[in-house]
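User: Hey, quick favor. My workstation is busy. Could you predict this chain's structure for me?
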Amino acid sequence: MPHERSPLRRRASGFALALAVNLLLILALLTLGARLPKPKGSSGILIFDVPPQSKKSEKEQEQSEPVRPRKSKPVPKPPPIVLPSKPTITVEKPPPYIELSHDQYAEADVRALPKSAPSPGQGDSQPVGRGPNGEVLYAAEWAREPTNQELGFYLPRNSPDGYGLIACKTYPQNRVDDCIALESYPVSGHLAHAVLNAAWQFKVRPPRKDGKPMIGEWVRIRIDYVHSDGGRD
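Assistant: No problem, here it is.
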């Protein structure tokens, strides 16, 4: 009978049917791929459009970035202040204080001296030589003679008997200054220097001419030193 087929034929027909179905599927796929149009001007390079990244805010960037310590600039040192040096002030020591007795004070009081008005031409001072620069030199007239204590304080030790001769310029109030040594006897005794040192205490009247004092003129002063039992005169 025709419907009665052998098993081998039934298997062959099933395999042919499956093959035909597969071929139809492959043909359909190839047909679909052929319909896809190619882009014009394509060079085979794929271009990807990458979307822009969202920008972070400045605050987020500052927070995300590590904070770097700022290096402080070295502060320049100010130049040293140089103070001006202070001027040296030389203070001269005052002369030593000399104690006087009551009688010596009385002798030194000029007010107790007698006052007389010499007539013109009488009592004028007599020149005795020349000063250091050729000025007229007059003999000194004591307004008050110096005491032994005033002279002995400046006398060198073991000094011999002799004298010291000096010249001084007269100033107001019977003072003398600018004194210079003229002569010492003996020379080795240096007695003129002892008179110079004691001259700041001297009271000498200025020379007179026609009864008028000539302050500023030069006078010659001589002090004699003599040994005595009580000391020096």
